[in-house]
Amino acid sequence: MISELLQDNFIDLNLDVPDKATAINKLSGMLCGSGRVSDQNHFVSAVLEREKLGSTAIGAGIAIPHARANTVNEVSIAFARASHGIDFNSVDGDPVNLIFLLAAPVESGSLYLKLLARISRLLRYQDLIDDLKKATTKEEVIKIISRPFTVFNIFLK
Question: Does residue 42 carry a catalytic annotation?
Answer without folding.
Answer: no
